[in-house]
Amino acid sequence: DSLPNLEVIRTARQAATLRAEDASDDTLGKLEVRFSKFGQWYEIRSVFEGHFMERVMPGAFTKTISDNAGRIRALFNHGFDPSVGQKVLGPVVGLREDSDSPVMEVDLLDTSYNRDLLPGLRRGLYGSSMRMRVKEDAWDNAPQRSKHNPEGLPERSIMEAAVDEAGPVTFPANPGSSAAMRSGTDAYYEQLRAVDPGRVDEVERSLRSMPHIAAPERTSDEAATNPPTEP
Questions:
Q1: Residue 59: per-residue pLDDT
Q2: Hey, which of 23, 56, 92, 150 has its CA 20 to 30 A from 179?
């Protein structure tokens, strides 16, 4: 089980890409963010979420595309970048599920802060990330050990998720890690504590009622070699 409606972050090594040929008078091109590969297992190790394996199933974003597409925002580093802040990168003009991944398309506005991001976007240096709330999932708490899960960790399949915002991020995954996806939830709440400590305290109080959610705290060595993925 997990805390209902907990806002979680998932980051992908897959780069956010910019199609400059789609530029217009007031845009710098079309930004494409692919933020989750369907059916791909990855490990979650989080103080806020717990320690388990997870995958996202095809169709998980169908409802949010239908009901919430007009409210989703495109932000850089989830709105915590000291230079860009919560300025939107541009309007979300497309949101769909391809056979392998959900895709968000953004008309990148011709602004000074977006122009600062252009060189990195053109070179594919930024990863993709989303902030979501899991609405429906299925758990196997005692799976057989397998190639994708050699430790026999609990396995979670996400059947439905509501996306609140997505966009490019600076640190999409551990340097040197082969994991294609990872959780950035802990880093998100660390940043959120500085601007809204009451909200973080409320989440932590709720978590204390779920003692099975207990992941090891990051050691000082881990913190030094693993900077927060984002925001």
A1: 95
A2: 92
